Amino acid sequence: MSNSPGNATNDPTGRFVVQPNGRTRPLSPHLQTWRWHITMTASILFRVTIGAASVAAIFVVGWLAALAFGPEAYVGLIDFAASPFGLFIGFGLTVVLFSFLLNGARHLINDMGKALTIAPANLLSSIAVYSPVPLAVLFWIVLFASGRVSL
Question: Which of 35, 42, 99, 130 lies 20 to 30 Å from 24, alpha-carbon distance?
Fold first, then answer.
């Protein structure tokens, strides 16, 4: 091995590694290398949102099953949905819906080649990260105020 700057044996930073084939390659970036930023948070939350939306699909299947099994099953489902725990699940799914919509809009804008520089990317990511809970709270305030939902 030579004493070239990219040589892992000369690297005091520890950012290079010698692969089994003898080639010197940079070490993969990780949390000790990268500074945490809002776009990383938005990306991770989008993945979590997709998983939560998959769980929400189970509730949709349960609702369809309750419809198929008759009025008694449907009343049981409605009673569960109107319980405090059911309302808590509904609120969580509302947060998931708003997060999915905002992150989807962010991805759509980025896929059009827009907002790819640091400031607009950070702005869109901040909106996608911080807005779902306040939007869900406002949505549920409207539901309670209009009488569509009650405890």
Answer: 35
